[in-house]
């Protein structure tokens, strides 16, 4: 287990043993797998793109040192890693994008072979013990079509499969693929053969593919099949961007992916009237997520690719981020209580935990580091079961429950004071949250953010919750009389 945690050197082993004891107490495995929501980092919120090799390595080193012992294990490079200049991109000459050597110098290969992410992948895997992911777009880049590059394993070329009229709405450098063409599936297979089998990626985020505006069901199925076809490697498949998604739409496609977006981009806006930062951005705010998530609760953990699938409200804009329209890192615009609420909702909903902030800042940002490394909150996300919404906007409060164990009445309870402008009390009915209805009920209650036991309570418990804040509790050892 310590080897899985990347523990090297006597002093690191001491720390890792302590962490392992704490996590073991709450039943959480350190390394993620396909049975649990992903835990990782994506470059977009802190770079508005892919960053460069030094940024990626610096963030990866920070993850390995500070977050990996708590389950965070995946580095995802977002859009543009193939960009040389403007719309000029690097390709392998066979209709596949490859890393720009200007952004990722290690991708340069000897003997003028195509650029490759294999060196960076090997570094993340072998030196840091992390997983590696990349962002790709549905379809095929227009430069590849203009050059009419051949499709691997076929006698066809890019022009044979491209549909220029089917551009991505928000990035028209990418053309659609004619999914009825015999080279369509081989094209997507060739991408995963290079990115998965040769480069060794563990996570692929496919954009401009999921949702009623950008949705392309045949592409979803083809890419899912391509992921399955990669031999000796299971790859986590994430679908975006999520505009216009409905529960019915998601229910038709969850089996093809591991996670799928159900919202537009999420930034550090509490609601549409937030002034610091000014909202709305071109995306969704956190209050909208509170209202949307209850309709997806029944889909959490349903059959997906290689295991369960997870509805996704986007990455976490916490710590130091680079919001749209800016060019430098700034602290998140959310208050500390709002940040706790966001992470608490993602935890109990079992949303994949993808951190968006710059991890290089975490060593001097104790608050954000504390948010991301609370083992009891992480356990709610990784081990909770059957999340369900009990209360939606009742006097400004929202209440969620999930099962903590198979024991009767052993549940996680999250109380959110979403709309009230002051600290307010919410009376939690132990009957309602535990499902026990025989007479007088007594239960132990623990505050998971404070990591302390609050005592034994009969029938009700009052959660004192700050404005825009959250109380996350474990209710257990219940008895009825």
Architecture overview:
With 481 residues, the chain is an alpha/beta fold. 27% of the residues lie in helices and 25% in strands. The chain contains 14 helices and 25 strands. The protein has an eight-stranded parallel beta sheet with strand order 14-11-10-9-5-2-1-17. Helix 7 (184-198) packs across helix 8 and helix 11 runs parallel beside helix 13 (375-383). The longest helix is centred in the first third of the chain and has 16 residues, at 10-25. The radius of gyration is 23 Å and the shape is elongated. The two termini are 43 Å apart. Residues 1-32 have low confidence and may be disordered.
Describe how the helices and strands are arranged.
Elements: H1 10-25, E1 39-42, H2 44-47, H3 53-67, E2 74-77, E3 83-85, E4 88-89, H4 118-127, E5 131-137, E6 140-141, H5 142-147, H6 158-161, E7 162-163, E8 174-177, H7 184-198, E9 203-210, H8 217-229, E10 236-241, H9 247-253, E11 259-261, H10 286-292, E12 303-304, E13 307-308, E14 310-312, E15 320-321, E16 330-331, H11 336-349, E17 353-355, H12 366-372, H13 375-383, E18 385-394, E19 397-403, E20 411-417, E21 424-429, H14 430-434, E22 441-447, E23 452-458, E24 460-465, E25 470-480
Parallel strand pairs: 1-2, 1-17, 2-5, 5-9, 9-10, 10-11, 11-14
Antiparallel strand pairs: 3-4, 6-8, 7-8, 12-13, 15-16, 18-19, 19-20, 20-25, 21-24, 22-23, 22-25
